[in-house]
Amino acid sequence: MSSPQERAVKARRRQRSTRLTVAVALLVVSALLVGGALLSGSSALVAGASVLAVVLGAAATRITHTELAVSRREAARDRAEQARAYRDLTVARTAEHAAYVDTMTARIHEHETAIGDLESALGAAQKQAAEATRKLNLEARRANAAEQDGRDLSKRLEDAEQRAAEAIVRVAELESELDVVRAELDVVTQAWRTAEATARRHA
Question: Does the global pTM surpass 0.70?
């Protein structure tokens, strides 16, 4: 089903076609009248036909001029509507771009915060690993110096080794997580820069 605007455009086109048809018909009638008067040879008929032809020509000219003025007004109205539509589209795109920039900024901030937390955790894990290694070395020296407490020291040594291994595994896990978050930050930053460059080109 056609919209009211489309129906109005069709109505204007029918009215325009009717006006132009009437103007052409008036010119044809005036030409036929003048031609018939000339063929009759009567000067009175020629004079009357000439006057009538001038009147009909003036009417056709007036109709054509009116149609031209209406067409110009319609064209101006269409250009104004297009300008309003482009303005609304520009406002909508600007709002969308601002929302996208806000979203990307928030995501970058979240990733940066996560990276900071992971770096802090990694530093703590590295300290724990260094401390566990120091304790492992200390326990090893004590085991060599006190063979009479071999069984107890062996147990303590095994515990220290396990803690050191767990700390090393944790360090590796944190380093892997940090690499993943940094990669995501690079992707998000690149997407944001691409979107900003695209927006500048459209602006």
Answer: no
pLDDT given at position 1: 47
Whether residue 7 has pLDDT greater than 60: no
Q: Which two tokens stand for residue 136?
A: 């492992």
Spatial neighbors of 34 by CB under 8 A, at least 6 apart, are 46, 49, 50, 53
Nearest alpha-carbon partner for 190 in 111, 116, 120, 114: 111
For residue 65, the number of C-alpha atoms closer than 13 Å in the C-beta half-sphere is 6
E-assigned strand segments in 13-118: none
- Tokens 């003036």 belong to 58
pLDDT, average across residues 17-41: 79
Q: What CA–CA distance (Å, rounded) separates 7 from 103? A: 43
> Three-class SS of residue 142?
helix
Q: Residue 98 CA to chain centroid, in angstroms?
A: 11
Q: What is the DSSP letter of 3?
A: -
